[in-house]
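README, section 4: Worked example with a bound small molecule

Sections 1 through 3 covered apo chains. Here we extend the same pipeline to holo records, where the ligand is supplied as SMILES alongside the sequence. The molecule in this example is zinc ion. Nothing else about the input changes; the structure line simply encodes the ligand pose together with the chain.
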Amino acid sequence: MQANLDFCLKCGKDASNIETCECGSTTFAFGFNISLIDSILVCGCGSKVFKIVSDSKFSEFTITNYRCTKCDNLIGVQCEVDKFQTYGLEET
Ligand SMILES: [Zn+2]
Ligand SMILES: [Zn+2]
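The generated complex, written as C-alpha cells:
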C-alpha cells in the first residue's frame, strides 16, 4: 500500500506532505487509481462504493482502509482522531 497522502477528501487538492489542507480539512485520501469527482471519491473502475476493511487508531489520527466493492482496489483515508468526515465517500 502506498503511504503517501494523496489529496484532501474535502476539496480534492493535492495534499502530499501536509497536515492540514488550506480548506481547513484534515481528512485525506490515499491510494492508487482513485480520484475525487464532484466531491465524491471515485475508484478508477468507476465505482463509488467502498467497504471498510480495517480501522487503525493512532494517537493523533485514524487510518481507515477501504476496498472498492467492484474491483477490490485498496484505498485509505487518514483523518484527525474524532474528526472523521466521510464527505463524498460512500460506504456499504
Ligand atoms: Zn482541502
Ligand atoms: Zn474499483
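What to look for in the output: Residues 43, 45, 47, 68, 70-71, 73 surround zinc ion (ligand 2) (CB under 6 Å). The chain has a mean pLDDT of 84.

Section 5 describes how to batch many such records.
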